[in-house]
């Protein structure tokens, strides 16, 4: 499990960099970390991020802008509420104008 813990911590470091009012995808984080096929592992890290309370997991969605992780948040619409508080509109569990709000760690963070 130690290898997963290290990967999860790397995911959290990237997720903490997502700017307020922006979102990224599980796959974009995985690609940035050099593990392009590990989007699902990034999802698992986000699900486990309750232990790392300073991780803005609500800003990580799937590649189409769907709030696929919303059932891991307390309350029915907490993930959507958190995003909407940051000015991101959500309709039918999907971010409206996803491309406009998308933040790519590969373009924003140093290697």
What does the average pLDDT come to? 90
Give the helix/strand class.
Answer: mainly alpha
Count of strand segments: 4
Output the number of helix runs: 6
Q: Which strands sit side by side, in order, in the main sheet?
A: 1-2
- Ends apart, CA distance between termini: 26 Å
How does this structure look, described?
The chain is mainly alpha-helical and 111 residues long. Helix content is 41%, strand content 7%. It is built from 6 helices and 4 strands. The protein has helices at 2-15, 26-32, 39-47, 78-85, 98-101, 105-108, and strands at 24-25, 60-61, 90-91, 94-95. The strands form 2 sheets. The protein has a two-stranded parallel ribbon. The chain has a two-stranded antiparallel sheet with strand order 3-4. Helix 2 crosses helix 3 (39-47).
Question: Layout of SSEs?
Answer:
Elements: H1 2-15, E1 24-25, H2 26-32, H3 39-47, E2 60-61, H4 78-85, E3 90-91, E4 94-95, H5 98-101, H6 105-108
Parallel strand pairs: 1-2
Antiparallel strand pairs: 3-4
